[in-house]
Amino acid sequence: MRRIAFAFALTLAALGTSIPAIADDSTPVFGEIAIIDDSNQTTTINNVVYSEKSGSGIATVLGKFSGLFEFGPGTIGVDSQGDPIYQYDGFVTLTASDGSQLFLSFQDAVVVLTLDANGNHQTYFSTTVLGGTGRFSNASGELDFQGIVVPEGGAMTFGPTYLEIDGSISTD
Question: Which domain holds residue 158?
């Protein structure tokens, strides 16, 4: 059933139609993004060097969009199941086809270093909506990202990333 709702919402997004807000004035957001950029660009924010990767996707509220992910330096740790993980903080800018932007931040994003049955790393993180431009100028809310990172080369060399997006935003 969720796949049918997802397909319906993506069809609406592709047509430029948004899902109406629910009772608490927040609008559900779900979609997907592929991050395939390997340009190895960096930016410095408050004396911290962030790696940049870009991608594109489609989601309710946004329609077709591009995304810029800025990943800070991370640490190696262990999750509650004892699996080795890589954790990092960062920022996300999602730009809709009309030029409106949504600004997000995240802390403690996780990449599980143990490969899954398909030979990929699992990844997940929650973001806080910091605002935006255009129709997202007063946006707030939270978006969750989860998916896979394809290993590329040696240890700690991450390739393409495929994520599902789920959450809600308010633009009041």
Answer: 2-170
